[in-house]
Amino acid sequence: MKIKHLIAAIIGFLLMIPQAHAEIDAAKAENFIKKTTQEGIVEIINAKASTAERDARFEKLFNSALDLNYIGKFVLGRNWKTASSEQRERFIDAYRKFNIKTWSKRFDEFKGKEFIFKSTSPSRSADQIFVNTVVPMDNADPASVVWRVEQKGDNFKIVDIIIENVSLAITARNEYTAFIKKSPDGIDGLIADLEKKIAQE
Questions:
Q1: CB atoms within 10 A of CB 4
Q2: What value, to the nearest 5°, has the Cα angle with vertex 161 and ends 187 and 21?
């Protein structure tokens, strides 16, 4: 009988533990992405502004909406552990500047389009959730854009964007890992390459 009582107590305890995805406020996460797409796409991409002005506005939104430290650590993968503090800072700075330009151009294809929200999906990470959207395209099937959102307290940050089933973060990690492996300068070589690309933009 004691064993049965112990098992019952354990089961009762486990049932009292909040589920992994209960921490995420799905409605607030979706509203966060609605606000971000409204400001980033409708008010910036669609705006009649110079490239420099648009990039400046996109940079402000980019810095506030994305968790750059999380993404930077993810895209460097195992190389993050071996990188020095200075290399990490230089990489995050170069990665941010490079993506402000590349993501701005990437989202140009959504100019004049509307994001249609298709609810949310749970993530394996307890503090993250997927916000699903589609964008109707001219002469093509709607484009799928899924936003991976992280919640910390009352704050929300984007940690990845999956466009047509292609993760921007995973794609970058694969490219950077391969580059570092081939480069004689390792992480420094990658940083120099990103800085060169930024200068060419």
A1: 8
A2: 110
DSSP 8-state class, residue 43: I
Distance CA 38, CA 44 (A): 9
Residues 148-190: pLDDT tens digits? 999 988 899 999 999 999 999 999 999 999 999 999 999 999 9
User: What is the CATH T-level fold of the domain 24-200, as seen in this structure?
Assistant: Nuclear Transport Factor 2; Chain: A, (3.10.450)
Residue environment code for 97-111, b if the CB has 16+ CB neighbours within 10 A, otherwise e: bbbbbebbeebeebe
Residues in CB range of 137: below 8 A, 6 or more apart = 109, 113, 143
Distance CA 196, CA 190 (A): 10
Contact partners, residue 174, CB within 8 Å, separation at least 6: none
Amino acid present at 20? A
Reported as a single tens digit per residue, the pLDDT across 49-103 is 777 777 777 788 888 899 988 999 999 999 999 999 999 999 999 998 888 777 7
- Give the global pTM: 0.81
Q: Where are the beta strands (DSSP E) in 110-154?
A: 116-122, 128-137, 140-152
> Residue ranges per domain, the chain?
24-200
SS3 164: coil
> Taking a C-beta distance cutoff of 8 angstroms, is the pair 117, 133 a contact?
yes
Measured CA to CA, the distance from residue 117 to residue 33 in angstroms comes to: 9
